[in-house]
Specification:
alpha+beta; Uridine Diphospho-n-acetylenolpyruvylglucosamine Reductase, domain 2; Alpha-Beta Plaits
């Protein structure tokens, strides 16, 4: 590390174990390995120098953004260097005419959206952690979020990337144009690669026109999760094109109610929160209100002001913090075809009962993307066996329903044991071959994703 410290500007390399430990974890419960040190990169040149040094000395490198990941993708491996790009946080360009921005990876997602709004635009990806997660981390996991039902996931907004490869070479992928089919889609390959193929140092992202007025929001209560799922199908089939369509189960609502007293009524099994940012949003909201009532809702609230709309959305954004108060959380992220959403909710409820595990579930319901959170006791370093057994049952149910192990969080460390159930040996071998092309020594985020 001394050689690397001398090659980089002062203050870039940290080796104090008490300090490096704080950079070695993400938001999972996983215990990290002992890192040799941390590099606080502030420029592309810092990243290049670090990776050249790592290649020369065969030292593993774990890239890191804000550390908000939920799958262990940024967890330090033994003897690695943690390469933090959180300080690379400049919006290098924002073109209202071309509706694009060029940003460094440490830019906070909400800050990019706020900058775009000043020009009548928006950055569409909207993970629940948007106020603390970075664009680079969202790219690394192909994060989705609350607005993805209408605007797509991070990959749908990524036009081009600047990536430093394992040996320090700089690769530029994609372009500044919305269309372009020259060569293979290397941008799409790097988005979601979880730092295993290279380190993103800049991204050209697509911006969209911001809605002209405030969104209209509804919150509907249901005595049955199947009824709530039926309402989801009805809203989509009716062509309402919601900009947000979220489902919260009773366990999640109770956790929020115990914390913030939202007035949860007995008999409420789930809540559906939907939003329209269309120019006729209030009319769309009323239509969604009617569809919820037709599909068994016991009560539906419709916002009549921006403040009330924010209050309803705030219930959804409180979900994860409320669950963290109950215990350690194994946060999962299965996705199924939308038509299979009722069966998936039933499968999760059954797994919770059979294995005596508290599972709190929220869903980006319009996408069939569910986040079952398996809660276990604080102070326990790893989930007990009954939690793993319940998770195994949930993952297998998702695959049986034609779904996937992860819709937006990534594989990281937590899902490695199930990965080949979905990909199969042929695809796993091809993925390993792709990894070898970009990282022949296997030093980038070893043990993760593939």
């Amino acid at each position: 590390m001394d050689v690397l410290a001398k090659a980089l500007p002062d203050g870039r390399v940290l080796t104090d174990p008490d300090v490096t430990d704080s950079y070695s974890r993400d938001r999972t419960f996983l215990a990290p390995g002992a890192a040799l040190g941390v590099v606080l990169a502030q420029s592309r040149d810092d990243v290049i120098e670090t990776l050249r040094w790592a290649t020369a000395h065969r030292v593993p490198v774990v890239p890191r953004g804000a550390g908000t990941g939920l799958a262990g993708g940024a967890t330090a491996s033994e003897g690695c260097v943690v390469l933090s790009v959180a300080k690379m946080a400049q919006i290098k360009e924002l073109s209202a005419a071309d509706e694009i921005a060029v940003v460094e990876p440490g830019v906070i997602t909400a800050d990019l959206d706020a900058a775009a709004r000043e020009h009548g635009l928006m950055y569409a990806p909207d993970p629940s952690s948007y106020e603390i997660s970075t664009v680079g981390g969202n790219l690394a996991t192909n994060a989705g979020g609350l607005r993805c039902v209408k605007y797509g996931v991070t990959r749908d907004s990524a036009l081009g990337l600047e990536v430093v490869l394992a040996d320090g070479q700089v690769l530029n992928t994609g372009r500044r144009t919305v269309k372009g089919v020259t060569g293979y889609d290397l941008t799409g390959l790097f988005v979601g690669s979880e730092g295993t193929l290279g380190v993103i140092t800049a991204a050209t992202v697509r911006l969209r026109r911001a809605p002209l007025g405030p969104p209209a929001t509804i919150a509907a209560e249901f005595a049955s999760l199947r009824d709530a799922a039926s309402a989801v199908s009805a809203i989509i089939a009716a062509g309402c094109q919601p900009s947000l369509l979220e489902l919260l189960d009773r366990a999640t609502l109770k956790a929020i109610d115990d914390w913030r007293n939202i007035g949860l009524e007995a008999g409420v099994a789930g809540m559906l929160i939907a939003q329209s940012d269309a120019t006729d949003g209030q009319a769309v909201a009323r239509r969604m209100h009617d569809l919820c009532m037709e599909n068994g809702a016991s009560f539906v609230a419709v916002s009549d002001s921006p403040a009330e709309s924010e209050e309803l959305i705030g219930i959804r954004r409180m979900a994860y913090t409320a669950k963290e108060r109950l215990g350690n959380c194994l946060v999962e992220d299965v996705c199924v075809p939308r038509s299979a959403l009722p069966d998936m909710m039933t499968a999760i409820e059954g797994a919770a009962a059979r294995h005596d595990v508290l599972i709190c579930t929220v869903a980006h319901a319009g996408d069939g993307n569910l986040h079952p959170v398996f809660v276990f006791d604080h102070g326990v370093p790893e989930p007990p066996q009954n939690v793993w057994d319940a998770a195994d049952e949930v993952f297998r149910a998702a695959l049986d329903l034609g779904g996937t192990l992860t819709g937006e969080h990534g594989v990281g460390l937590l899902k490695r044991r199930w990965l080949e159930l979905e990909t199969g040996p042929l695809a796993s071998g091809i993925n390993a071959g792709i990894k070898k092309v970009f990282d022949p020594l296997g030093i980038l985020n070893p043990g993760k994703a593939i």
